[in-house]
């Protein structure tokens, strides 16, 4: 120490006080000195700036380290020191301003002098507010990290730059089955599916270069199954250096399964599991593209089930659905011969066949018929289904998928018009045919209103005595510009459009009125037979309509005969029987038309209230030439006789046919041999007039006698 300075210090001079004050005022710690009564004697600049000058003498401002609990009376640092105690690193919260706490680390001790004992107290406090807040933020951050890591529902992995797993969270075991012990220390690539390994390695490498990654992959579950994951890889940067990565993997297996299911549903029919219209169109476009590249062909086969709507409506939709499923199963047996078999909807099925000639496609169509020939047994019914098939060929029948489908559809409708249960190739003239059909539909809707429809009557003659026994009412359409339009052309159209209901009612009411008109002229009454379509038979208001027509005309119900086809009678026995019983209660007669043409169960003949069987013209036409048809007709007549039913043969055109039927005991004859269908006035002139003349002649002779 400087010799010149020592005397000043030793003497406790002014200079020593200056030095001490400078030291105290430049300290960061707050220093306060109190006398033995606790009165403040001294404080430095730090105490003044921090607002602690009077803090320790105001006990109410002091709180414990939790920042909430006030320090009890007598336990404050100053009180302890005044009692002669030492205070060492005691954390105290002091609210020097409202809502602003200062956290102090307090140290203090008593001040003693020789001969006087304790004369005061010294308190040194260090402001640790910033440090404590930093520690708290760090603790909160660590807790958040721990919470995010430990409680994260997604898999979180800490991986070093070599790919070794350093740490994993519990979600790994829950989602992938692997425990942390079984995976830590191993290379992460061991747990990735083989197909996604290259992709995962590439993404990991990019993340290690500082580029965050998002991608989907499959990982290997502990059970060796695969799980779908959406993975995010983030680089870990410390002091500007990448030391590893975090991999966060979300289990998206359920989402993937849903996506797969949605994709499947978007491209498959839910009832049959066959490809649907969307897949069919896409595959057809692909097939056409391939055909262009290969200079080959593509065929579209469009199949529609005959009479499916009637089966669906009669037996119920559940039976209809099961039938479609069974049909689909059979069609799949042809899978090797076609690229795609699809269900477009309803009862429409389509096939794509590549690299095949017209001859090969014909063979394919025939195999479809063979596939569907055996009966389908469903809920006690043996259902026989026939298809109508249309075929279009690429490139001659269309240059795009839409045109190919449309042309195959047109060909299919042509097959239906040709009697169903056949196939037709597309021809350009079918477009004109479709336009004609559309014109007919438009005109048919107006025909009834404009009085263009007529009823012609075809006589039914007794095979025993040649007398008129009845007549069948048959509709004709006389168009003012198109002339006479065949029922073959417009009746199916009326069925398709639903016009058959109103047209059928008009036929029935007109026939009843005509019957009464003849009766009023004195002609002997005979049965009038009116055909009922399947749509009419199923119509709820059928019985009420018939009763109304009979009442309106005054016709005796016993002379009205309703003809239903065998196909109507063969399904849904309870429904049909209930309907027929109700009609019989009205008093009308029931006849089965076209008998022998359907795949029927003869049991309905003894169950239903039937009065007459009508042998189909197809058997009559060949019975004189084909022995098989002759014996069929013979068997039907014998069956009808045994059941006490009247039997009538339609389509009789030759004398030989007539003689055979008479020999077999047929009751009535209908056909061109006697008369074609004719208007009422002509029937009156050619048949009724002769009967009246004959009747008058007999009456006159009786009078003379």
From TrEMBL:
Q: Which residues form the GGDEF domain?
A: 296-428
Residue ranges constituting the PAC domain according to the UniProt record: 88-140
Q: Where are the transmembrane segments?
A: none
Entry's Gene Ontology BP terms: regulation of DNA-templated transcription
Which SUPFAM superfamilies does this entry report, sorted A to Z?
A: EAL domain-like, Nucleotide cyclase, PYP-like sensor domain (PAS domain)
Name the domain of life: Bacteria
Q: Where is the EAL domain?
A: 437-691
State the name under which the record lists this protein: EAL domain-containing protein
